[in-house]
Amino acid sequence: MAEKMEIVIISGMSGAGKTVAMQSFEDLGYFCVDNMPPALMPKFWELMQQTGKVSKVALVVDLRSRAFYDQMGDILVDMRDKPGLTLRILFLDATDSELVSRYKETRRAHPLAMDGRLMDGITKERDLLGDLKRHADLVIDTTTLTPRALRERLFAEFKTQKQTTFHVEVMSFGFKYGLPIDADIVMDVRFLPNPFYIPELKQETGLDKGVYDYVMGNPLAAKFYQQYITMLDTIMPAYVKEGKTSLTIAIGCTGGQHRSVAFARRIGEHLRKHYTVDISHRDVNKHKEGVNRS
Fold first, then answer.
1. Cα separation of 154 and 148, whole Å?
2. Distance separating alpha carbons of residues 159 and 146, to the nearest angstrom
3. Record's InterPro entries (predicted)?
4. Complete domains list, the chain, with CATH
5. Confidence of residue 43 (pLDDT cuts 50, 70, 90)
6. What integer pLDDT is reported at residue 227 of this predicted model?
7. 273 by DSSP, 3-state: which?
8. pLDDT in tens, 71-104
9. Rounded to 5 degrees, what angle do the CA atoms 229, 233, 238 make?
10. Is 17 annotated as a binding residue?
11. Rounded to the nearest 5 degrees, what angle is found at the Cα of 57, between the Cα atoms of 56 and 59?
């Protein structure tokens, strides 16, 4: 039996936080489409159903599609009755004074007040969106919410119990090939004894038992590892609390073959107990291309 598709319609007042909402749904694993004309929603659902590859969709529908808005009510009623589809409407709102303040801050023009007063546009928009708000499954007033608070509220409402939105990449690299530009945390382990100078380990990597045991068996390495893991265990929950969805930890040695690989392995295996973790080794095979001191 085909998996039931979930579609979330994101709408609401201009300036109430739809951009933050769409970014949050992307991080929750939804296939997101911005500025979807309501008339195209039934066809879009049919196409998604045919592919069978997407089960969660978030569509932003706002007054940029106002030429199609008169059809919205009938379309939503029809889609709620479709088998195999769960439809939820999220409506974001804020007080008039807060919307005015946000527009003044961004210096944007309201879509319904291009040639008039800002409040005229807000009033007209409230009138046009009145029916949609009344039919919404969830209305969130963002007047006092920061973008992070809105994000947390959406995660609380739409995140599944088994779903994790925080991803950690632990990678090894060689300084001789340059710093990874996407790293959030960089640690240098070139202070440790180098297996490159052990003949039987020279051509092996930190993925091999001999190199791994040589690196991690050093008393200094053991002490450093414990202190570094203690630091990571302390700061990682704070990254999650701040709303960060991904973190890249880069461990470097000279060539990215021995020491950094062993350390990245062990750190990644520890963090996997608590987070979704990928372990990668950017330069581990570069030694095959020439002389390498890692």
1. 10
2. 19
3. P-loop_NTPase, RapZ-like, RapZ-like_N, RapZ_C
4. 5-158 (3.40.50.300), 167-289 (no CATH)
5. confident
6. 97
7. coil
8. 677 777 778 877 778 889 999 999 999 999 988 8
9. 140
10. yes
11. 160
Asked if the model's pLDDT at residue 186 lies above 90, the reply is yes
According to the annotation, is 63 in a ligand binding site?
Answer: yes
117 marked ligand binding residue? no
Q: Is 148 a known ligand-binding residue?
A: no
| Spatial separation of the C-alpha atoms in residues 179 and 188, rounded to whole Å | 11
Per-residue model confidence as pLDDT tens digits over 193-206: 999 999 999 999 99
Distances (CA, A) of 63 to 75, 101, 104, 122, 210: 16, 20, 19, 11, 64
Sheet holding 56-60, edge to edge: 31-33, 56-60, 5-12, 85-93, 138-141
Q: Cα 287 to the chain's mean position, in Å?
A: 34
Token pair of 43 as six digits: 């066809």
Supply the angle between the helices 209-216 and 219-241 in degrees, to the nearest 10: 90
Question: In the predicted model, what is the mean pLDDT of residues 240-265?
Answer: 92
13 is in an annotated binding site: yes
**Any idea what the Cα angle at residue 242 is, between residues 28 and 93, rounded to 5°?**
65
The answer to the question of whether 15 is labelled as a binding residue is yes
Q: Is 294 annotated as a binding residue?
A: no
The answer to whether the CB of 28 falls within 8 A of the CB of 157 is no
- Gap between the Cα atoms of 264 and 266, Å rounded: 6
- Residue 45: pLDDT band by 50, 70, 90 thresholds? confident
Tell me: is residue 174 an annotated ligand-binding position: no
Q: C-alpha distances in angstroms, 4 versus 55, 102, 144?
A: 7, 38, 35
